[in-house]
Amino acid sequence: MIQSFIIMFRETLEAALIVGIVLGYLRKSDRLRQAPAVYWGAAAGVAASVVAAYGFSRWSGGFTGRREEIFEGVLMLIGALLLTTLILWMIGRAPGSQNADIERRVERSLAGTSGLFLLVFVSILREGVESVIFLAAAGAGSGQSLSGALLGLTAALILGAALFLGLIRIRLSRFFAVTNVLLILFAAGLVAHGLHELQEAGLLPVLVEQVYDINPPQTVPESYPLLHDKGHLGSIARGLFGYNGNPSLLEMAGYLAYLCGVVLLWLKSARRTHSVHRTVQA
């Protein structure tokens, strides 16, 4: 539930911020008469995202056995890759550059009759498709929670409206920094789980089946202890951080290699962004 909440909250907030920036620019430039195109574009983007989610669920629901393991393993690795590119792109953006970039795109879109509609539509659809893929990968790894996704959607819409109306003020850079850390841990878990599924399907070697086993033993049949990776608390940690009480060597190596690689890329991208920002200020 928690991972679904974070994913949906993050993606919906990004979409809400895009709409807010566009409307704010129209208001600042005294062109609010163009606002209906923004509303229609957002509505069409949401509708197309729902259709994409429905089509994806119908298409992916027919896999069973080995084909299901291969599909879930590949889906988790693709989800981790997309999350990583999203995180590194956000880290590489200088403070305030996203607003300026969207405003430039709005100015160019206003030259055409349907440009503003398409700008908002494509932006919302992109966030929606990303949400579908991320939630599907999370569901394959730990059981997707519709309630968590709906809570994240609702919370993001409320926060986005409050920010746009000026009711609250928060440092979005710090907010995204925190969620970036959570998403990196989530993506590392997807990598480990994806490798596990591909091992189950026989596409990857097992090498060492269990590097360690710290799962508490079952004392009640059909029930797992709280800290077991299939228990109530352990399953949350498994879905959110990739916790595994008995990982294989390849799973553990993939998890650690991913974390080290992303942290190095983060530090490199952050230094480059800081250097560019200081140069611009000078």
Protein model, in words:
The longest helix is centred in the last third of the chain and has 33 residues, at 249-281. The protein has 282 residues and is mainly α. 76% of the residues lie in helices and 0% in strands. Helix 1 runs antiparallel to helix 5, helix 1 (2-28) runs parallel beside helix 6 (146-165) and helix 1 (2-28) crosses helix 7 (172-200). The protein has helices at residues 2-28, 35-60, 65-91, 97-109, 115-142, 146-165, 172-200, 232-241, 249-281. The chain is elongated, with a radius of gyration of 21 Å. It has a domain at 2-184. The mean pLDDT is 81.
Write the topology of this structure.
Elements: H1 2-28, H2 35-60, H3 65-91, H4 97-109, H5 115-142, H6 146-165, H7 172-200, H8 232-241, H9 249-281
Can you summarize this structure?
By secondary structure, the chain is an all-alpha fold. The protein has helices spanning 2-28, 35-60, 65-91, 97-109, 115-142, 146-165, 172-200, 232-241, 249-281. The chain is built from nine helices and no strands.
Entry keywords:
282 residues; mainly alpha; 9 helices; 0% strand; elongated
Please tally the β strands and state the result. 0
Q: What is the gyration radius calculated from CA atoms?
A: 21 Å
N- and C-termini, Cα separation:
46 Å
- By oligomeric state, this entry counts as single chain
Largest sheet, strands/sense/barrel: none
Strand content: under 5%
N-to-C series of helices and strands: HHHHHHHHH
Mean pLDDT reading: 81
The assigned structural class equals mainly alpha
Low-confidence stretches: none
